[in-house]
Structures are given as C-alpha cells and as structure tokens.
C-alpha cells in the first residue's frame, strides 16, 4: 500500500474542487485588535474573528489570566476527576449556571466537544431516544447525534411546520429532543425560539439549544438567544462556548442538576480528558462577569453590524439580510470566493472564504463578522475595497 498516494489523492480532489484550506498566518498584537500583522511591514484588519466583543484582547481579562497563570501554573494537571478541578473551574461553572438561570453547568475543553459528547451520551441513555435536528445545525451536533446511533429526523431549517409534522408522527411514549442553534453560524439568522419552545412543550420533547454565537452577545446580560426571546427558562439544555464572545476557549452546557450530574458521570468527552487550564477558566470568568454588565457593548456591536449592512447595500454588494452581527456575502463559487479574499488581503482586509463542506456548494461566501472595535472608517475602507474587487471580478466573468 502506498500510503503517501492515498492521502495525496484525497488532497488533490480537495484542490481540484477549490476547497483546499490555506491558513493566513497572523501575528496578533493584543491592543491593536482588530488589526493584526501579516509580516513586519503589512497590517491587516480582521473581518472574520469570532472574538466578537474583543474580550480576548481586554486588558482586564489578560491581567486576570496572567495572575492565574502565576498562581496556578500552566495546566490543570489532570482530568476533572484526577486533580483537574480547581476553585476557578468551580467558580466559572457557578457563574455560567447563574448567567443561564439553571441549577448547574459543566465545562468542556471546547464547544465542539460539549455538543458532541453530550448529544452522543444522551442518545445512548435510552434505547428509544429520538432527535429532531435543524438542517443547518453545526458539525459537532451532527456528529454527536450520529455517534449516538439514536433515531434522528432532520427538519427543514427554521421551518416550524416541518418540525411539527415530524413531532406529530412520533410515538408519544419515546423520549425526544429538539436540537437547534439560537444564531446560525453561517447565515447569521435567529431560530424562532418562542415557537420551538411551544412545540417542545406540546409534544413533551426536551429542548437543546446551541448558543455558541449568541452567548455574551444577546439578551440583557448576555445570556444569549434564549434570554433575548425571553424563553431561557424553557430551554432544557443550553450549550455555549468560551471561545467567541468570552474571548478565550472551552465549552459548556447548563441545565438542571440531574442532567449535569448524568453527563459529568458518563460522557467520555468530559471524563477522559484533561480539564481546561485554570488561567483560561479565570479569563472566561472575568469576561463573563464583565459582559453581564456591559449592554452598551452589545448595542455597539449591533450598530456596527447595521453600519456594515447599510454600506454594503449602498455599494450594491449582495449579502444575506441577517439580523445579527454575522453578515454572509454570498459569492456562490469557490474559486471566485478565494480570489476576492486574496485580493482583499492585498489591500489590508482579511476575511477568509467559506467553502463546502462548511456551507453547501454554490453558496460559498465571505462570512463577515463585526466587533465594537471596528470603526465606521474601517467599515468604509473595507466596503470600498470590496466594491472595486467585486466589479473587476464580475467584469472579468462578463456579468452585469
Ligand atoms: N457550535 C457552533 C454552532 C459553532 O459554530 C461552533 C464553532 O464555531 C461550535 C459549536 C464549536 O465551538 P468551539 O469553537 O468552542 O469548539
């Protein structure tokens, strides 16, 4: 067996389909965010960061992490069961539970792991579990449900009629769980959580909501889409990340005590891996407490997103009219998407192309995300550069 050829042939297919991933190597310089350096001479503005509120660069968060590093050392020293539970992990879990108004919460090493291991473990807990999963759910949800081998039904994205059609056809006595996101990562649209809650109650299903792109960002205190829609108490399991609005890394679920204790006691992705470094827990705790009392930052983010949408509209650049801070500029072709991204980088703007399988083919896009640190002037400069590149590319392809 020629192993080299085996892997290279796969890579060649990916390259042929224009899906090969080129990483842009950036030198982040804390206080300069959203600028970063490409090399000693060139600076770029980042337009695709998930550090949505700049907390990864918040000097108070950084100082807290430095102090925790000095006090507690680099790593946690083990799994949660074997010396990897510190006061900082416990304090952070209490803070998360309070934020989401749940009895308890549980930390994981990423949002991906939180979804995958929780859903797999729940799906294996009873022979008749049935998942109802939104068609646009994230890979971590899809893989978690798949690995559980439980029965699953995929309902059309945000389509309540389709969800109810599935629910109506299922046996009433079997355990069911509706799984959705509150803000969809690639389209930036919100789930109709009020309606989903109504259906979950009507059909006695548990409700699991991935709040990864909403925690810290929506709701009075940053509790996410559930808080924004005033239905947080009706969501049975809230899943979130510490890697986006909270600026560091790690994931969690928040729920009633019985759910948390069950996952804590049985989920392989929680039990068999080293816990987060204490300094990360300290940084996340600080960012979460800070953001609970900063509605003005959430308001600023929304103003900046609106400014970007207005300017794109004026420049006649097609984008999906998302109501959130995630603005997808649909290019619809992998090669063109890559060209636009490369040309923008040359002009000091960094936005990564998003291709299949992250999004369906023919919907390749530039996924623009704003932060309160992106000024109106930066937005103007981005739209002006994009407008010129867009015209040239469309011209080159002979389109109107
Ligand atoms: N859920 C959704 C909807 C996501 O978009 C992502 C990642 O972007 C995750 C989960 C995984 O979160 P993390 O980056 O913390 O692993």
Q: What characteristics describe this protein?
A:
400 residues, alpha/beta, seven-stranded mixed β-sheet, four-stranded mixed β-sheet, binds pyridoxal-5'-phosphate
Topology overview:
Elements: H1 3-16, E1 27-28, E2 35-37, E3 43-46, H2 59-72, H3 87-100, E4 104-108, H4 111-123, E5 130-134, H5 139-148, E6 151-155, H6 160-168, E7 176-181, H7 193-202, E8 206-210, H8 225-228, E9 237-241, E10 251-255, H9 257-266, H10 268-271, H11 278-292, H12 295-314, E11 326-330, H13 334-346, E12 349-350, E13 353-354, E14 365-369, H14 376-396
Parallel strand pairs: 3-12, 5-6, 5-7, 7-8, 8-9
Antiparallel strand pairs: 1-2, 2-3, 4-10, 9-10, 11-14, 13-14
Helix pairs in contact: 2-11, 3-11, 4-5, 12-14, 13-14
The chain binds pyridoxal-5'-phosphate.
Task: Write structural notes for this entry.
The protein has 400 residues and is of the alpha/beta class. Helices cover 43% and strands 15% of the residues. It has 14 helices and 14 strands. It has helices spanning 3-16, 59-72, 87-100, 111-123, 139-148, 160-168, 193-202, 225-228, 257-266, 268-271, 278-292, 295-314, 334-346, 376-396; strands at 27-28, 35-37, 43-46, 104-108, 130-134, 151-155, 176-181, 206-210, 237-241, 251-255, 326-330, 349-350, 353-354, 365-369. Strands 4-10-9-8-7-5-6 form a 7-stranded mixed beta sheet, with helices on both faces. The protein has a 4-stranded mixed beta sheet with strand order 1-2-3-12. The protein has a 3-stranded antiparallel beta sheet with strand order 11-14-13. Strand 2 and strand 3 form a beta hairpin. The protein binds pyridoxal-5'-phosphate. Residues 110-112, 115, 138, 140, 181, 185, 210, 212, 241, 243, 251 line the site of pyridoxal-5'-phosphate.
């Amino acid at each position: 067996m020629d192993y080299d050829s085996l892997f290279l042939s796969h890579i060649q297919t990916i390259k042929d389909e224009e899906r090969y991933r080129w990483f842009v190597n950036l030198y982040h310089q804390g206080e300069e965010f959203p600028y970063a350096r490409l090399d000693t001479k060139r600076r770029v503005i980042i337009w695709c960061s998930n550090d949505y509120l700049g907390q990864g660069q918040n000097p108070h968060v950084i100082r807290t992490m430095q102090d925790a590093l000095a006090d507690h050392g680099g790593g946690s020293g083990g799994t949660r069961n074997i010396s990897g539970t510190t006061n900082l992990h416990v304090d952070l879990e209490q803070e998360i539970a309070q934020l989401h108004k749940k009895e308890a919460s549980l930390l994981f090493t990423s949002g991906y792991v939180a979804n995958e291991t929780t859903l797999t473990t729940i799906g294996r807990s009873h022979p008749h579990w049935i998942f109802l999963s939104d068609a646009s759910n994230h890979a971590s949800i899809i893989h978690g449900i798949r690995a559980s081998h439980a029965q699953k039904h995929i309902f059309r994205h945000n389509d309540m009629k389709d969800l109810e059609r599935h629910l109506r056809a299922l046996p009433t006595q079997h355990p069911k769980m509706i799984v959705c996101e509150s803000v969809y990562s690639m389209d930036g649209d919100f789930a109709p959580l009020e309606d989903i809650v109504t259906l979950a109650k009507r059909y006695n299903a548990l409700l699991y909501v991935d709040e990864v792109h909403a925690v810290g960002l929506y709701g009075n205190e940053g509790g996410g889409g559930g808080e924004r829609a005033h239905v947080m108490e009706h969501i049975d399991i809230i899943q979130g990340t510490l890697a986006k609005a909270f600026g560091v890394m790690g994931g969690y679920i928040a729920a009633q005590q019985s759910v948390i204790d069950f996952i804590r006691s049985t989920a392989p992705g929680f039990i068999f891996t080293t816990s987060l470094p204490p300094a990360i827990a300290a940084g996340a705790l600080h960012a979460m407490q800070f953001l609970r009392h900063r509605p003005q930052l959430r308001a600023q983010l929304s103003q900046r997103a609106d400014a970007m949408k207005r300017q794109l509209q004026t420049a006649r650049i097609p984008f999906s009219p998302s109501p959130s801070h995630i603005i997808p500029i649909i290019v619809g072709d992998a090669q063109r998407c890559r060209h636009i991204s490369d040309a923008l980088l040359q002009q000091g703007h960094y936005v990564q192309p998003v291709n299949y399988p992250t999004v369906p083919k023919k919907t390749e896009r530039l996924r623009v995300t704003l932060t309160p640190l992106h000024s109106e002037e930066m937005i103007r400069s981005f739209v002006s550069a994009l407008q010129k590149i867009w015209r040239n590319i469309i011209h080159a392809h002979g389109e109107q």
